[in-house]
Amino acid sequence: MRGLFTAGVTDVMIERGLTFDGAIGVSAGAVFGCNFKSRQNGRCLRYNMKYGKDRNYCSFYSLLTTGNIYGTELCYRRIPEELDPFDTKAFEENPMPFYVVCTDVRTGRPIYHRVYRGDREEMDWFRATASMPLVSRIVRIDGQLLLDGGIADSIPLRYFQRAGYERNVLILTQPADYVRQPNRLQPAIAVMYARYPAFVKASATRHVRYNRDTAYIRAEAEAGRAFVIQPAESLHIAHTENDQGELLRVYELGRAAAEEKWDALCAFMERDS
Question: Is pTM, for the whole model, over 0.85?
């Protein structure tokens, strides 16, 4: 639910008409960030506020009955198709490429997939990138076994740079002084995914890559090749928070961060390469 900070930032960008040449999202950054491409201001906050307490949306009931703490049927079928429709037409017609990052369970390596339509078939890519280990079933797409993209590549700046994006805006949901620690649940991951040793290794070393990436981002920002929007301090919100006051608080922090940095962001965007 730290992703609601991202939603607050991107809603300000939508309202003020900001566009990009391309975008990439990981986990919540993808399932919430896709609304930036479809230009659906406020949608992310709206459906989380309305359905967050539904046991079929996110609950241990859903985990016990379906194997997914975030229910597939409600989150990735009924909400985007019926209850709060995702605008697949606007998403497809927007020329901005949008990529999601998933982790290949067999290899432990990242998979970068471009999403073109955001319809039911492609919605499984969003489900895969946000499927947290231990509380989600492995997602099978075209013979691939996929889970949370953050395991293999939490902040895919280097990938986007290799793809030709020379200056990048990053929305991070941890403060600048955050240092990721080893996962306390790693022993459980080692047991549950014993058939996939590469994935277990990727999970065990995630904190090393993350901390290396944030150091790289700081250097790129100092060099003028990256612009970072992130909270000033920890958001203090759980992965599965459904309290409406907490959801709104984090969303408003994202909006405030975007507004505070707006002039500097515009200057960064307008600067000659």
Answer: yes
